[in-house]
Amino acid sequence: MNPRGTLLRPSLVATYRRQVRRLLTLLMALALGLGLAAPAGAIVNGAPSTPGTFGFLVALLDTSRMSTQNAFQSQFCGGSLTTPTTVVTAAHCVVDQQSGVRDLPASVTVGFGRSLNDPAIRTVAVTLITVHPNYSIATGENDVAVLTLASPVTDVSTIKPITSADIATLETPGTKATVAGWGALGSFGKNFSDVSRVGDLVLMPAATCGQGQNTSVSGVNFLAYQPGEANSSVMLCAIGIATTGKIIDSCNGDSGGPLVAGEGEAQRLIGVVSWGINCATRHPGVYTRLSAMTDFLSATGALGVAAPPQLSLTALNQRIRVTFAKLPPNANFAAFTATVVGSTTEQCSAAATTDGRDASCDITGLTNGTPYIIAATGTSSSGISAASSSQTTTPVAVPDAGRIKKAILTGPRLEVSTTPSVSATPVLGERVSCIPITGGSGQSARVIERKATVKHLSAGNYICAVTARNDIGSARGPERLVHIGA
Ligand code: 4AZ
Q1: Digit-coded pLDDT (tens) for 134-192
Q2: Among 134, 305, 401, 480, who pairs with 468 as Cys (CB 3.0-4.6 Å)?
Q3: Distance between Cα 255 and ligand 1 center (Å)
Q4: CATH code of the domain in which 452 resides
Q5: What atom in ligand 1 is closest to the CA of residue 286?
Q6: Is 143 a catalytic residue?
Q7: Rounded distance, CA 257 to CA 54, Å?
Q8: How far apart are CA 207 and CA 85, in angstroms?
Q9: pLDDT score of 393
């Protein structure tokens, strides 16, 4: 059961908004045609963004809808560019609220620009979506996700997320904050803005945001969220009152977008539009409290410091092979280094790969039977990452498997020649195996007198290597990429 009962679930957005914007817009057009008044506009009761400001505000666009319609019809959430390759948005924008299934990166396109009806709107693909590990659909807690862009956007201003240093100045109740987006102009009107709009808000006390204490802002009394409705440790509540006395609030379609505070160089992203009870009513809007999400933002690279790479270790003879996962969370490394913790000499480095293989390198000259603790860093345009968490493994006297010297395609067969595998005890067997880089099962063949013939390889790219076995175990030699043409 939804703990917020009748509330307008954050959720409505991802599922509902994606289908509904167009219909609502049509209904609006009809309403206008009938001479009904359009709701006066903002976010709700905000104002158009000033050109040249809020460049970091991005629109999340439904990729498939973009193939037949424009950005205005395809927009379903907002987001903020925090580094040239990261967009911070709401988790509920990219997680199906019924099934919990996450959107695929390819299904979301990021749009840059002020007007969604601009036919020249700039779009960038998404390669990775990372949802906060403790995001809860049921409670709406930790409603934050990071999108990693396919290519860096360096000519648009970014906004820095708040860190602990800024909490005292930027999270105090009464602090002025601004929300921006392309969301609904009114709770019931349900018409949407083409040009991004901004609303000036003030932060409410934590007591109003989950502890049941009503607060008045500019003489207007606002109703608090009760315990179990909102959790102020991970949420911020904010609302605005216009000079006209109208209530300023975020609304459907603004979800994922920025709540910013501070001026000039000190401006920070303090919140992400998350949920509320309707819009511009007597309840404040609720925002993800980003100061409580620092570890997540750091781990995804959204703070601008490269996230540590992920590594896996293979114990070999007097060496340890370190493999760096090409994926998460921030896939923009140019190179990796793995080091035995506490050593300055026992290390290895590898360039990032572009061919779909994971990068790897061997730390050599180690002692069999001794455990080694290993951590890794990555190098990207934003510098050297923090060290990864460390892992331990122990080199063992498995064979040093040979290397593929030559791989020649003759018809459907791959003729392979190898260097010998070396082992302290007899080598009991050697095989060459080739695995498709896209995954799945491959083909292998026995090595006899340093030669093997691998058959039945269909067209594609394969990673081939020699595997050698002795009485201790087996080991895989250096990998070689083999392309089988169609
Ligand atoms: C939404 O559904 C939504 N008034 C966003 C913000 C608020 C309510 C609903 C806050 O996207």
Answers
A1: 999 999 999 999 999 888 888 899 999 999 889 999 999 999 999 999 999 987 656 88
A2: 401
A3: 6
A4: 2.60.40.10
A5: 10
A6: yes
A7: 11
A8: 36
A9: 97
Joined together, the tokens standing for residue 476 give 């895989």
Query: What's residue 71's pLDDT?
Result: 97
DSSP for residue 7 = S
Last residue of a domain, one of 373, 393, 413: 393
Task: Quote the ligand 1 centre to 207 CA distance (angstroms).
Answer: 20
Q: What are the contacts of 223-231 at 24+ separation with CB within 8 A?
A: 223/282, 223/283, 225/283, 225/284, 225/286, 228/3, 229/3, 229/4, 229/7, 230/286, 231/139, 231/141
Instruction: From 13, 279, 283, give the residue whose CB has the most ligand 1 atoms within 8 Å, as the site to mutate.
Output: 279
92 catalytically annotated:
yes
Per-residue pLDDT tens digits for 215-268: 999 999 999 999 999 999 999 999 999 999 999 999 999 999 999 999 998 999
* Residue 70 and residue 191 in one domain: yes
User: Within this chain, do residues 389 and 424 fall inside the same structural domain, yes or no?
Assistant: no
pLDDT of the residue at 386: 73
16-20, 71-75, 410-414, 436-440: segment of lowest average pLDDT: 16-20
Phi, psi of 87 (to 5 degrees): -120, 125
The residue annotated as part of the active site, out of 92, 358, 360, 400, is 92
* Residue with the two structure tokens 């709406």: 140
Closest ligand 1 atom to Cα of 44:
4
Is 362 a catalytic site residue? Answer: no
Identify which has the larger pLDDT, 298 or 195.
195
pLDDT per residue as tens digits for the range 332-357: 688 999 999 988 899 999 998 877 77
Catalytic residue among 11, 80, 255, 380: 255
Q: Which atom of ligand 1 is nearest to the CA of 279?
A: 4
Single residue among 371, 393, 415 that ends a domain in this structure: 393
In this structure, the residue with its CA closest to atom 6 of ligand 1 is: 251
Cα 272 to averaged position of ligand 1 atoms, centre (Å): 11
User: Residues with beta carbon inside 6 Å of ligand 1?
Assistant: 8, 10, 12-13, 249-252, 254-255, 273, 275-276, 279, 285
Per-residue pLDDT reduced to its tens digit, 35-67: 333 333 348 999 999 998 999 999 999 999 999
C-alpha–C-alpha distance, residues 400 and 480, integer Å: 16
Catalytic position from the list 62, 103, 143, 254: 143
